[in-house]
Amino acid sequence: MKFDKSKKILVIGRAGMDIYPEPPGTKITDVKDFSTHLGGSAANTCVALSKLGVKSDLVTCISDDAIGEYILNKLKDFSVGSGFCRKVDKVYQTQLAVVETILKNNQSILYRNNSCDLQLKKDDIDQINFQDYSAVFISGTALSSNPSREAIFYATQKTSILNLPLIIDLDYRPYNWESDQIKSDVYKKIMNEMDIIIGNDLEFNISDNSSDGFYLAKEFIKKKPSIIIYKMGEKGSKVFTKEKEFEFGIFKVDAIKPTGAGDAFNGGFISSMYQGMSLEESVKRGSANAALVVTKVGCSSAMPDSEELDKFINQQTMEK
Per the confidence metrics, is the pTM higher than 0.85? Predict the structure, then answer.
């Protein structure tokens, strides 16, 4: 799969504000001070790409208030394009996440009522010239309700016409879905449109309302997708293509939190594929990027740059 390196990656999904108790290791119940960071899976993925030398534009809706302005400022700081970040009425709110920098019994509390990112509409998609992009990445949370769900499918139609690579992180979150059956139907429909699918065991299970997501992943590789990455946490990952199946381990680190790894993997993997590296090397770099992020406070602000990632890979061994 080839990417046009003269063009950006388009990323569709949510942006938010993450709030961390300080110093690291402090429980929310005991906190006296906080630090704030850009958050949201799509925004984090954009930052991960940017830090690794790949430009991106984020498509989302943000609240027309100081928190929305905070997000725009942070996107600018990280050199992420925000021209398709539409402000919406303050009745819709930007997601806030209060997250502990603690590995065991980690508390991550999300405030996501009337979420503004789910107000994405077809009109927002019509503002985009998809020919300006090398690929389109979708965060699955954007599928959880309308009008965002319809906007996402509309974007996939426009992308497919141009034969641009379509990538999804299934990114399942339990809120906003009407029912398990709708959730499964929507996920299966979108997966049929993708070229690359990234998800963990739970997310593939959810897509089938079953406990055999591994079987679902193996079945979907027989359809349109050309790459499926099935993540298994501490057990590593399995990668399926039309021709073969790969198995990868993990990079063991002294983690201080569990959050941010998935978004870091997305950035490490996609940036490597974009830069023409092999599938095996791209998965390895995605896994290394994920390992580095869980050793630091925050998600977006913890994303490593190319020099740090290369140094880590040269000094560490992926273990089965």
Answer: yes
